[in-house]
From TrEMBL:
<dbReference type="InterPro" id="IPR000719">
    <property type="entry name" value="Prot_kinase_dom"/>
</dbReference>
<protein>
    <recommendedName>
        <fullName>non-specific serine/threonine protein kinase</fullName>
        <ecNumber>2.7.11.1</ecNumber>
    </recommendedName>
</protein>
<dbReference type="InterPro" id="IPR011009">
    <property type="entry name" value="Kinase-like_dom_sf"/>
</dbReference>
<dbReference type="Pfam" id="PF00069">
    <property type="entry name" value="Pkinase"/>
</dbReference>
<feature type="coiled-coil region">
    <location>
        <begin position="165"/>
        <end position="199"/>
    </location>
</feature>
<feature type="region of interest" description="Disordered">
    <location>
        <begin position="219"/>
        <end position="281"/>
    </location>
</feature>
<keyword id="KW-0808">Transferase</keyword>
<feature type="domain" description="Protein kinase">
    <location>
        <begin position="1"/>
        <end position="105"/>
    </location>
</feature>
<keyword id="KW-0547">Nucleotide-binding</keyword>
<feature type="compositionally biased region" description="Polar residues">
    <location>
        <begin position="253"/>
        <end position="263"/>
    </location>
</feature>
<keyword id="KW-0067">ATP-binding</keyword>
<dbReference type="InterPro" id="IPR051131">
    <property type="entry name" value="NEK_Ser/Thr_kinase_NIMA"/>
</dbReference>
<keyword id="KW-0175">Coiled coil</keyword>
<dbReference type="GO" id="GO:0005524">
    <property type="term" value="F:ATP binding"/>
</dbReference>
<dbReference type="GO" id="GO:0004674">
    <property type="term" value="F:protein serine/threonine kinase activity"/>
</dbReference>
<keyword id="KW-0418">Kinase</keyword>
<keyword id="KW-0723">Serine/threonine-protein kinase</keyword>
Length: 281
């Protein structure tokens, strides 16, 4: 039915029918607003808005009677909205959109929405708690069944098998404890090693420098000692026996490097001192 079309069929309960419908004048959505106001009055007062002993008396009250009012215990805003909805002229009745835009109705709707959302959250939490309790009960039953099965299997065993089972369980428990202790000790040792490394981070480089200096000093001492040994007089070639060639691994003046050659100045001094001593004799 379009917005400009009007219905003419006479259907419905007399207590909720609009005046235009009873007059066969045609009706539209504004007739539903009238029926909604009748339901609102009935919800508040627990009685019909228009009553009578028969159908005709009810029709007369709807068409020609006064508009009913809500008791004083209800807000005035709600009473005003209901009376505007029960206006005898359909054009003066508010539409559904206009009713929802009334500040009082809008505030009540917001309050209901908040209350409903809180109730929804509470229901969800309650459902979650019920599901969690159900899961816990199922797990407990499963564990209990497993325990009963284990007990039944143990009861079927011989005393020797039971003793062996107890020993195995004790050994497993001891192994678990030892494993845990070893892991703790291992972590403790790792922490100590890390602390020592962080403390002595610069110590290796310092030790390397000291070792290098020590090696250089020892090499210099060896070179000096070899230089001193080379200063002693060597055995003359004339003193050797003819026809024999002495093989020696000791270095000679020809084989010595330049740094270890015998200084000629010292030999000259030795020869002059020897001649002086012979002349004196």
């Amino acid at each position: 039915m379009g917005p400009c079309d009007l219905a003419t069929t006479l259907t419905g309960t007399p207590h909720y029918m609009s005046p235009e419908a009873l007059k066969h004048q045609g009706y539209d959505t504004k007739s539903d607003i009238w029926s909604l106001a009748c339901i609102l009055y009935e919800m508040c007062c627990m009685n019909h808005a228009f009553t009578g002993s028969n159908f005709l008396s009810i029709v007369l009250k709807i068409v020609e009677g006064n508009t009913p009012s809500l008791p004083e215990r209800y807000p005035r805003e709600l009473n005003a909205i209901m009376q505007s909805m029960l206006n005898k002229s359909p054009s003066l009745r508010p539409s559904a959109i206009e009713i929802l835009k009334v500040p009082y109705i809008d505030g009540q709707l917001q309050h209901l929405m908040c209350k409903y959302s809180e109730a929804t959250l509470e229901d969800k939490n309650l459902n979650c708690q019920k599901e969690a309790a159900h899961i816990i009960n199922v797990v407990k039953k499963k564990i209990h069944l497993q325990t009963l099965r284990a007990l039944s299997e143990v009861q079927k065993m011989t005393p020797r098998e039971r003793m062996r089972l107890r020993k195995l369980q004790a050994a497993d428990e001891k192994a678990r404890k030892l494993k845990k202790l070893v892991e703790e000790k291992y972590e403790e040792n790792n922490k100590r090693m890390q602390e020592l490394r962080s403390r002595n981070f610069q110590q290796p480089s310092v030790d390397i420098l000291h070792a290098k200096k020590h090696l250089i000093g020892t090499e210099e001492k060896e070179v000096r000692s070899e230089g001193r040994l080379s200063c002693f007089p060597q055995e003359e070639a004339g003193d050797r026996r003819p026809g024999r060639e002495e093989e020696s691994d000791e270095p000679t003046s020809e084989n010595l490097p330049e740094s270890q050659l015998i200084p000629s100045l010292n030999l000259m001094k030795l020869e002059s001192s020897a001649e002086d001593t012979t002349a004196d004799l």
